Amino acid sequence: MTAVAPAPRPPLLRGLPWSVVRVHRTALWLWIALVAAGTAWLLRALWLTAGDERYDPGCVPRCKDPEPFDAYIPLHLQGRAFALLPLAVAVFAGGALIGRELERGTAALSWVQSVTPARWLAARLAVPALLLTAGGTGLTLLFRWVWTTGHPEDRPGWYENDIFLATGPTGVAHTLLALALGALAGMLTRRALGGLGLAFLATALVLLSAGLYRSELWPTSWTGHDDPGTGNWYVEPSGAHGTLVHTPSHYWPLQLVETGIVLTLAALACGACFALLRRRTA
Q1: Where are the domains of the chain?
Q2: Are strands 243-246 and 233-237 parallel, antiparallel or unpaired?
């Protein structure tokens, strides 16, 4: 009697999601490496903060170390990397994820088999979106923890663009919008180079507009403080005795309003992708 060999164990992901991961495994490993490096970088900043002794209650601040405090330099660098992440995601989505597939004809080959165009596009959007949301949310939570740990005198201001994007859901929302804009750019151009170029320009325009007009998303408050050292986000000076500002209490309203707007744009971009795909494959 011949023994029957056991069937191979199926992978964790099967079907279309597994094919997306397999085809773009280099990008997946790069994303895992970036998340790991960002985590290590933030933990280093946390260690530097915990080891600082200049704020001894019996000592004047900075008396033990006259040099500028450098524990938050990693936060500035990490925040800048987080702010630039949507550009990298847009280039990947417009070039490799969608544009190259359409240019080489591999997408059309999948459509004539058992995969419908809508399912093909849904898998290529859902898998990266899930991975980006999971990794981005983890980094955001860790960044916020490190940012709130140190002394307020050395803490980067919440109103700085990079810090604002890295400490709340807005940064993750911009990443998802970049993915949707990249997919739409790839669908429009059907070329890898054209897709990544158009996606880069569209995402850069969105990020620039967000930085310029963020202060308009929530009403400013009147305060009698006109010293920039108060930590307020100054919008429009209005005299020596008072100033219209965004105070720290406006942080979450600004975060939630911008996140809602960005996610709405992402949903519209995804809807445009499916509408364009349906029109071309009808």
Answers
A1: 34-46+70-216+252-281
A2: antiparallel
Output the pLDDT for position 37. 93
**How does the average pLDDT of the chain come out, rounded?**
81
pLDDT of residue 189: 94
Phi then psi for residue 116, to 5 deg, are -80, 155
Neighbours of 221 (CB within 10 A): 14
- Tokens 């403080």 correspond to 225
**How many whole angstroms separate alpha carbon 131 and alpha carbon 139?**
12
The answer to whether residues 185 and 202 touch, using CB atoms and an 8 Å cutoff, is: yes
Cα(239)–Cα(233) distance, rounded to whole angstroms?
16
**CA gap 201, 199 in Å, rounded:** 6
220 versus 143: the higher-pLDDT residue is 143
Element (H, E) at 268: helix 251-281
